[in-house]
Amino acid sequence: MNHKLDVLQPALEAALAGKIKSLVRDHGELTLTVAAADYAAAALTLRDHPTLKFEQLLDLCGLDYSAYKDGVFEGPRYCVVSHLLSVTHNWRLRLKVFAPDDSLPMVASVTEVWNSANWFEREAFDLYGIVFDGHVDLRRILTDYGFIGHPFRKDFPVSGHVEMRYDPERKRVIYQPVTIEPREIIPRVIREDNYGGLH
After folding, report:
1. Is residue 17 within 8 Å of residue 38, measured between CB atoms?
2. Where does 3-144 sit in CATH, by number?
3. For residue 110, which of 83, 92, 143, 147 has the smallest C-alpha distance?
4. pLDDT tens for each residue of 69-110
5. Residue 176: exposed, middle, or buried by beta-carbon count in 10 A (0-12, 13-18, 19+)?
6. Where do the structural domains in the chain lie, given as residue ranges?
7. In a 10 Å sphere around its CB, with 0-12 CB exposed, 13-18 middle and 19+ buried, how is residue 148 labelled?
8. Which of 9, 10, 19 is nearest to 40 (CA)?
9. Is the dihedral of CA 40, 41, 42, 45 positive or negative?
10. Longest Cα–Cα distance in the chain
């Protein structure tokens, strides 16, 4: 048994009463899911409540659940997952929130709570199209300024929509439609009885 989780779990249930959608304990970790409407308030409570004191946000990322469990997942498509650390109490927590609208996935920004969320939220916006309401500088961080779409979405084509190359005649970078021929590559299967073994 993990004594820290035995203390943390009831502390979360007491401090966030009414805001918890689910609290799952699995593989020695706790995962807390809250509604999008409660996300900002829950983040403040997690940071400021004396029995919790999650001072640090270590990571934040987006997820696309559209093909989760071979497409049998029922629920919102886009999720934001954060990993929190309490230096004071030496415990960790995974915090999840689902964006309620798949056509415009939006959740509150937590940059005012943990400033380390800034670039993580920009990355989730860039790669998944999740909008963080209240973020002061929400713009692309990894893809090009003129990039169209969000490349980590499950429905984004593997080859993309356009490609970029340097044109020596124009002496600049140009964009053009993708020239890659889509093909299916089937790996070679070796069925020799003693392949790789000692003879």
Report:
1. no
2. 3.30.460.80
3. 83
4. 776 778 899 999 999 999 999 999 999 999 999 999 999 999
5. exposed
6. 3-144
7. exposed
8. 19
9. positive
10. 68
